[in-house]
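[Solved] Which block belongs to which protein?

Original post:
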Amino acid sequence: MKTREERPFKLWPEALSLRSMRGRIAVLLGLAMLPAGAIAMQVGFNAAAASQSAYEEGMSRRALESIATERRTIDELREMLRVLATTPALQQIEAGDCRDWLSEISTRYPYIAAISVMQDDGTILCSVPAAASNMRVPDSDIRRRARARDSFTMGYTERGVLSGLPVIGALEPVRVGDRRIGFVGASIPTTELDSLLERSRTSSNPLHNARAAIVDSYGRVVAESTPVGDAPPLPTADQITRHFGGEPVFLDVEGGDAVVVPLYAPDLYAVMAWAPEQPLWSRVGAIAFSIAAPLLIWLLAIGAGWFAIEVFVARPLSSLEAAARSFARGEDVGDPPALLSAPAEIRSLRRTLAAMAKTLRGRELRLVEALAEERALLREVHHRVKNNLQMVASLLNIQARAARDDSEAWGLARAHDRVQLLAVAHQRIYSSGELRHVRVDDIAAEVARQLLQSRGAPAKEINLVMDLGSARAGVDRAVPLAFLIGEGVSAALDVLSDAGPVELHLLLQQDPDGVTRFAIDANINAERARTASSGARLIDAFARQLGATIGRDPERPYMLWASVPPEQQPVD
């Protein structure tokens, strides 16, 4: 048994491998719950996306509300210029002076720094404040865009021609029929826009830790509110221009978020940057939770299914397997704790196994008793056969003594020897207690001694020397093998009788592969031995029965050796 230190380390437990029931159940549970887990994850992603969309929508609304004043101012300026451009009196401006009613407009809209009417070539016809006679405005980016667009145009000018201040200028074309004859323009100082942004910041819907700005089409900041608190920086001009469009666009800036909102696209945009109301970890945690919660629910569902199968199926089956092993060893076991809470089907199966084990133990006991009885009967049969054979041998011995001539006496004596040999074999079989295999070396030793004793005085000078190794054979082959050895010894005794002092050697051994070899030899010259007896025919007959190979020396008739192959096992 391996100790804890000798057991190999495994990264994955054997109980959860795909070769085990638990591992396969875990995989099947994961696959079965996969659609529900995918749906739950999608719900989590949708919730996170909806939360982000709601956040962006809310911030866009607040950003639009914060620039509502600026947008109204731009719309008011545009509407005023449109009305002026369509006034019939303005279309006849070349015939008169417009300063009086331009002054009225300037008074009505105090945030206007300057207002003017000019021809298409830039010559100012009328303005407030007044310009020099026949003054021509230098060509500028806003005028080029206005001519190219031929519609209302706005733009930033670092120094206004009439006000001398940084302004946001606006031009509206003046037409007579389909012909443009000039532009009516107005400008708003950027300082006025700064004030509007400040008022928006302190309005009823303020944005804390935020800053707002107005940028032109080149991304230049033309007006900006004063940053308060931990307001993050505005996006760069390159970031802003890349996100110009007709809808609000959100950007990530250092320390917060930003949004670009069209104020008057494509000329003016409002930009707002603010620090998040919640820390980054809180927002990331909320999003992570909205995604992780469905995943956790999915894992909990798998865990609940696994727990149910483990408690109500896997553990009871393992306990049932252990009980079955105990039953197989013939042990009586009670109900383990795991089976007490098992389903009724498994408990019923356990009772069935217990009943089967009890029935099998009873049958096994009866088989053991029947086998013991059969062994006893078989031993009794061998014993009775031995007794009967000894009785026959005794009768033959009596008959041999009463024979009238030597030839008859010799024949009866040889018959007595063979019957006695068979009796010895049966005696060894029943006395050994084995019914399948017997010791051939014991039978050979007993047969040789019995044969030597039965010869009486003629064989008194024969010294039997035995070198016997351990050898076994089946009962069916033990008897013919004993006869083969006995006939060889008997033939040698016939040849060596009255030959004087002789050593008769009997050698027996069995190879590891089951081949049994024996040899009979004597230390005597051939001239002193008699001729071979008639037992050679019996030796050949038993050799054929056993499939053995026999060897003889014609010059030495007392010599014999044999090789007996092992018994062939039946093929299923």
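(Second protein starts here: sequence line, then its structure tokens.)
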Amino acid sequence: MPASKHPLIVIGHKNPNTDSICSAIAYAHLKNDFLGEAAAPFRAGNINLQTSFVLSNFGVESPELITDVYPKIMDIMIKQEALIILSEEDTLAQAEDILIKNRFSFLPVVDSEGKCAGKITAFRLAGLTREFSELALRENIFINLEKFLKSVGGRIITCSTKQTRFTGKLLINGISSEPGHEDAGSLLFVTLFDENTLIEVMEKGVKCIVVCGPEGLNGKIPEMAAKNDVCLMVSPVDILSTVLQIFLAMPIRNFIDRKHPTFKQHDLVRNVQKEIGKYNEGGFIVLDEENFIRGVITRINFLTQSRFRVVMVDHNEFSQGVEGIEEAEVVEIIDHHRLGTRNTDIPITFINKVVGSTCTIIAEMYKISGFLLDPGIAGLMLSAILSDTVILKSPTTTQLDLDMSEWLEHRAGIKLEEFGETMFDAGSALEGLDPEQIIKQDQKIYVEGEWKFSISQVEIVGFKKFFEMKNALKEKIKSIMEQGGCNFGCLMATDITRETSLLLCSGGRKILDAISYPMVEENIFEMKAVLSRKKQVLPYLLDLIRKL
């Protein structure tokens, strides 16, 4: 299925938090159930403890994980179920018939295990004329007798055992040399009816005979064939037509192209499109990792619009988006952060409001529309608002956040304050998480001029565990910062009970010395009444950067 026919992808940022996940689910639900547009929520990273608690509490499954939205071959290829695939034992006649009727340039071929054996091409079949003329010179031919007889309307007169296949040499009466005793048993003898000739070749030990134009075939010959264990067949057509059908009854296994370029179903469209220019092929087989055929790609398939259609929620900066977002068709953005997106090729829906949560914006859409709101979706959106606004205590909280929280509280059937505290308690524990998980579970990368920096945030109850892990956290921030090419990085540990954050930083002395908040320990700054990364910490750091 072309990517353009996929459901609309609704997805939040990498290292998703509760607002990122819940806004994707809620907006995809709005699109699907009320606006009539096929949409599906996805996530660009692993969910954190708080989000896991929220989803479990309201009985909602986690969105499917996608690591990138680069168009892949599997998005534009002809799928395996739509293909005609031959086996190595199918005949040349079958391959020729399918290729001519459908005007195909090739057909995929599988072996006895169902794995790709190669392909039979129209170009290869076009070169069979010379091989047909040399058929009697072959040391060995392999023939499906059942399919040969069916093709000419022939039948078996006598055969002690049901022989379905013949392997040996072809001898055509009047054209090839006479059969000898030494290899007569491995001969397929083709002749017009002539009693003396038939008696002679049977006496020499020929075990497989095709008689063309069998008028006058009397009882003596079949009796002798039965006595000598000869497989005697008749063909109602002339010798030339009979030999041609014998040739076409040969299995394709000796005629397939086994050395040809193939691609994997997860290969990127842009890479394959460059690669196919190196080959003069009508098409290419697409395989999985175990060499099973998953599809076929032709040059025509690359004309298909393969860009994914994406709605970005809870972010608008491509640096925070899923990998490949720059190659996707972004059709909508719903966010509450600073603007940092690039230009778009066409006009898009862009809703950005100064509110505490993306789910506040989506909840307002539900309210204005008058659609009946599912309690579970209401609970998800309320959870996201409480998470982003620290139970409506953050300075990012607006009147619209308060209004939507009250509206959702009634529809979700929960007590706002009580649920918020339970939710934060479920997601605040640092136990069981290593430093990398703590830093990456809610990390955002920002670019400002020549500066690239990261801010991670973790919400906790009390700073005891944080100080126990501070050295390991310092080292991991430094490592992650260097790996990501950042000038500096920091972890914002927010105690929701004290309404205070500690900022653990790593970077050059120039930026660290410019931070004016009290330093409680080396590279750890106390930020009282600071709860919001978006509205308090990010603007503060951006201002420092611009002054350096």
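Accepted answer:
You had them paired correctly. Confirming on the second one: The two ends are 51 Å apart (CA to CA).
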